[in-house]
Amino acid sequence: MIYIDVKGEVVASGNEWLYSWYGIQATSPSQITRALKGANGQPVTIKINSGGGDVFAGCEIYNELKSYSGEVTIEIHGLCASIASVIAMAGNCKMSPLGEIMIHNVSTSTSGDYRDMEHSVEVLKKANKTIANAYILKTGMSEEDAYKLMDKETWLTADEALELGLVDEIMYSDEKVDKSLLNSLKNNAITFCNTVGKIDNNLLAKFKNYKPKINHPVIKNNNQDDFLVQKNKAKLQLLKLKGGIQ
User: In terms of Cα–Cα distance, which of 50, 143, 160 is closest to 97?
Assistant: First the structure.
């Protein structure tokens, strides 16, 4: 069994270096693609603890997992929110009794006149439809029910997620979902962002243009202290760019 982490912010390929530089966990499609290629068809377990992130990056990860030639098992170990919850729909899903799933609408920021606003509304609605498809395919729920969950920004415990069919099993338990029974009960009874928190895109752009004067610790007399001082200065500059300090 090969274990692959989906932890921290879900980011577009090429942005991982910034998060890694500051010790912030992040996962990109390219990282998952490399890991799956390395697994070479062997069974993989995807361990999720993520608040979400970039919609298109998350959808790419979902597609990579769905098209993988081997068996894919998803394990939700903690938070599985936003686009991370879409990734969780890509395989047989187990959830820790200590975990939570959060489902909500796609969001973005925009500016302009009323035409720009109306255009953004239409684009967001289509993005929501895209996201909803993952929940519908996994559970068999109606599009209307998926939209209701997203509109409410729904937080689900393991038991609640199991009842809806979003997960197949609660970890450390023998309880498994009977999807046919759940469907029967339901029939008889009645740049986008999809994330909890992330580094702002404008900040990312500013930081990419910022070039701190950091001397490589090996090149400059192997001075680790100097490297750490310069790294802390870079962190301070990042805070200034973010507006956290004056």
Answer: 160
Q: What pLDDT, in 10s, does the model give residues 67-110?
A: 999 999 999 999 999 999 999 999 999 999 999 999 999 988 88
2-195 CATH: 3.90.226.10
Domain ranges of the chain: 2-195, 210-242
CA distances from 94 to 47, 82, 90, 125, 213 (A): 10, 17, 12, 30, 46
Residue 117 vs residues 91, 108, 112: alpha-carbon distances, Å: 36, 11, 7
Rounded to whole angstroms, the Cα distance separating 86 from 105 reads: 12
Which residues are tagged catalytic?
Answer: 82, 104
> How far is the C-alpha of 64 from the C-alpha of 116, rounded, in Å?
33
Distances (CA, A) of 63 to 95, 125, 173: 21, 21, 29
| pTM beyond cutoff 0.90 | no
